[in-house]
Structures
1.
Amino acid sequence: MPQQISIFAENKPGKIERISGILGRNNINMRAITIADSGDYGIIKILVDRPVDGCKALKDEGIAATLKEIVAVRIDDSPGGLHRAASVLSKNDINVDDAYGFTIRGSHEAVFVFQVKDIKKTEKVLQEAGFSLLWDNELYFL
Amino acid sequence: MFWNKEVETIDRKALEQLQFKKLSAALRSAASTPFYKKVFKDNNVSVEKVTSLDHLKDLPFTSKADLRLSYPDGMVAVPRSDIVRLHASSGTTGKSTVIFYTAKDIADWADLLARSMMATGTTRDDVFQNMMGYGLFTGGLGLHYGAERLGCMVIPASSGNSLKQIQLMQDFRTTVIHITPSYALHLGDVVAEQGLYTPDLGVKKAYLGAEPYSEETRNKIQEQWGLQAYNSYGLSEMNGPGVAFECELKNGMHLWEDFYIMEIINPDTGERLPDGEAGELVITHINREAMPIIRYRTRDLTRIIPEQCPCGRTHRRIERIKGRTDDMLIVGGVNVFPSQIESVLMKIPEVGNNYQIVLDRHENLDRLHIRVELYSKMFQGDMEGLNRLKKKLVEELKALITVNPRIELLEPGSLPPSTGKAVRVIDNRKI
């Protein structure tokens, strides 16, 4: 199951600088980054090529970081692409807690990355509807 | 104006005789309680050997910790069926300190407050709006009973709900209010926001209490409202409000010496200091059936004004409270100890051991911020968990200290370490 790094950060200047610095020094490459903000603090979510190493490097520097399991589904990079995947989720009454997406270089495909309560069920319904999921290494080395 | 001229202007010698008589009775009554029975035995105190007021200084002190130790009723000197009420203040470690009263205690307390209010010129023709909290806190019910005893029309408004307070003042022509100084300033601003001119409301007097404030704040409230503001002093251990009250001359608070024996001590050595010197106020309650308390260390710093007041009252005055000998904070009139906050934080595993308490004042109302570090290992990676944690902290703290805190979750390592002299409390309020 793919994982992202979730980091607790106060809403202050210099936070992304510090985190990206640590990852850079440890030769960890970022695929995507998103920030969920809640006023005083937020959660920075980063998809990297080596999540376990990245998370450990951050923790070693005293940062509150953890690995969070995610679902990554391959969708068409064309109008309605996301809608088709989202329809499957909605028909199965699956609520998306938090999500982001990115396109894959040199292809007509994109990746929709999201958090849900029941990962197993989500993977199952998406696969049954013909969607292709990205597993750990596929996703990290896109 | 005197409520009871004979008692209020009693000559010192007769007052001391009265005090001694009441002290002897209080000591005998105390000796019947489980708590004092043990304390007197452990300290070789024989009640019969106290043959003069001066002997009081050889008796052991009673502290807030003793009140907790004797929780719930180790200091009670009457049968349960004679008790008609209790009041409580939040304790430093979660356990409250509880004070009990018989019907006579309540009646005497009301009488003392009627005396206090009349000393400021309030009469049965006044309309008294009581904006202190009703309930376990003594501030609300204490003056309520006193004002009724005096014969005022009482509006038991309790605290908060500013627009309603203003409406009540307008509709019932309130002349006297009981209020915390910070809320008086805030309410004055709300009146102005409503396009009203505060002095037009016709409030003539304010009794200020429950939190420390400066002479400048008193002047500001007087100017803003066009009224006379009087200082009062009390603590639940000694009944509540009405232990000491200013008279119309507003130059120190008369401590009612027929109910209480006061001493000023050096807080470090416990040694009694002469009149006029500043130190910790120690009070013995000599007028309570249900719960006599001997030599209670109030932790409040003040001095006795030795000169007699020109008003004619012979009961000596104390100066406004200068501070505390402990770390108690007063937030919006509520007593809060940092150790209470710490006790809550320590039992919540998601937060670290470092914390900071920041106090400031916004629109004249106290704000309590608690800054805590998230504990790395407990971070689950989702916002929902953080919000849940914040809510849990607010709820647990509010349940213990009754003040609604604002929680700031910080990254691990952002607060100064707990070793050494960490500054835990940052008080930005100007009093």
Note: Chain A has a mean pLDDT of 92.
2.
Amino acid sequence: MLRKNYNIWIGLGLITFMGSLSLISLFYTPFDPHAMHMDARFLKPSATFLLGTDQFGRDILSRIMAGGRIAFLISLLAVIFGSLVGFLLGSIAGLGKGFIGQIIMRFIDGLMAFPGILLALMLVTILGRGQHSVVIAIGVFNIPIFARLVYGLILGNENKLYLKAAESFGASKIYILFKHMVPAILPRFMTQFSSSVGVAILTESSLSFLGLGVQPPNPSWGIMLSEASQYIMTNYYLPIVPGLAIMLTVLGFNLLGDGINDMLVKRGSEL
Amino acid sequence: MKKTTIVLLLVLALIVTGCSKTDNRDTDNSKNNLQELSIGIANDPEGLDPHRTASTTTFQVTNNIYDTLLGVDTKGNLKPRLAKDWHVSDDGLTYTLELQENVFFHNGREMTAEDVKFSLERLTDDQSPKANDYKGIKEIRVESPATLVIELSTADITFPSLLAYPWAAIVPAEAVDTLKNKPIGTGPYILKEWIPQQHLVLEKNKDYFLGEATLDKVTIKTLPVSASQLTSLESGTVDVIYDVTGEMAKVIATKEDLKLINAPQYMVQVLALNNAHPALKDVRVRQAISMAIDKETIILGANDGFGDVIGSHMPSISPYYVDTTSVLKHDVERAKELLKEAGYENGLNLKLTLPKQYKLHVDSGQIIADQLSKIGINAEIEVIEWASWIKDVYTERKYEMTVVGHTGRLDPDAFLNRYASDASGNYFNYQNSHVEDLLVQGIQERDEAKRKEIYKEIQNILAEQVPAVYLQTTYSLMAANKKVQNLNIYPIDVFELREITIE
């Protein structure tokens, strides 16, 4: 079945491609991503500068690679943080029920009511600019998504016979959570995780585009896009590269998420 | 899959918006004999009351509706406008102004010295953003309907130049409550229509006391995005655009029916250093920073070459300008040595705060950070909003380095008086009692040659002591259709629509 699931393969392919570019940048970039070459501004792609140069003569390929590293790092950290906290809150609310569960879920509903980017903007304004704030901001807006997901899945599964059976044998809530709930939740959790990373990359780019995220001269795809958009009249080529980088990566994570979902739905129907 | 589609569309939309053309040409211009002109500006005026705004775009419009007592020519020299003559007493404390007679407001009433007194008092009241500049005025007296006497509390040779700025406009007392939306002045143009965020229509004042304008009607359109300004100019929707960037200039140069108008501005772009900072207190560190910076590269990289290199705090076109560019020449090796002497051979971390709204300063800052890294100074960039810049950097002086421009003033004192220790504009925290003495002499010296010497000495001191690194005087860039003639650039950011003609 997996072989016909094109989404998952295209998604994985895109992520591997962009991810390895970013990984390689840890050891090697064609040029220093910060180095300016004033005599080589606005160059089109050539043998020396594979993707051309920007308004300060910096190598665009090197900046895309280094920017990818920042985008992946921030997004993964943020989603790991958001999903762990979300999982914790969701499972406490789902298993604990009662008063505490109600309080947690109403709080989550409150967070949910904010549009994600607005919440992130607000948090960055409070916490100050920079990469740490962006991680926290994106993480926080992922908390309600995961908390709701885990809470819903726990409620949906708790009446299953095998759980009733485990309970009647006197299994503790913690035991049930990790032995029975986690495996049941995991597939849907991974789907959400994948598309959340995609959204996180988009959010990081948006915040940096608005000047609230990563600070120049650090390469971030959002900053590159924002700077390039100023030169769109004379160098239409310039914004295309960071635009494509963002698009391909986000597309990759969304396809992967869809792919995992398709796979699970099919497997579910076969069972 | 829905998200994927949205992402795709967004990226496409971003690419396409910059390329779209406006096709609603104004075709009726040539059908009648009326001389009409259409101008594109970036920001909508925030109200047309000259005593209640600090916005440059607003003054660019109001300067054509109202008159000031004195005018300036393109070189910054003062010339008569509503005042046909002015004298100063021997002690430098009393100015007597002879006013033009038979000047009428747009509402038909004759302008008198009472209106001038009223206007200047309104300019200095507590609701006026420019009041602080005029705090030297002690008393204004009307001697006759055409004679006005202004008493100053201390002698100030720079006072007449204060009467030439567009905010020192003369308004009729009876109309001040509605000036914001219904401006009434004595100027060459009368406001006909104003639809905020869209356009503003001016018609010529046929009874203008200096002779009526050539253009019958001027439409000023608000075009906030620079890409749309350029396409509007190319398609003929507007004939003139201000606020042209170096990038746009390149495109304009390739178009046959368009021309570029540029001239140096009365502007000084600086890398300001906080002289109270433990490392920046040391003059050797400041000199090292100055020598590490290659100003030509900044002008090229941040401003596409449209700027003059300077060495001190004076615009290159000022008659008081002294060439100090050779005092601390670009020399990376010497800069490293100086830094070593000061005890920072292992490097130095400094914050570089940049105002987000000003692309010129943000870009310059990035190039500076790159250049400073070559002598071991790690400049950590922080880009902040203009409002926070004013508060944190300028007012509270909580910063280490910043890039900003000082603009739009005529007299050398207006540029340099911020170097007095207690000046509110001394955000450099610079202390030098000799400079302070020279500044006091400067505003009292009436002999032009001696005055030039005083300001020359101050400029030399600043060039050597580097309270700030003086980067460039930028050019003012405008673009127009080739048929537009006599479009002049003035040092104080005003436009004289009256002079413009169409071939």
Note: Chain A has a mean pLDDT of 87.
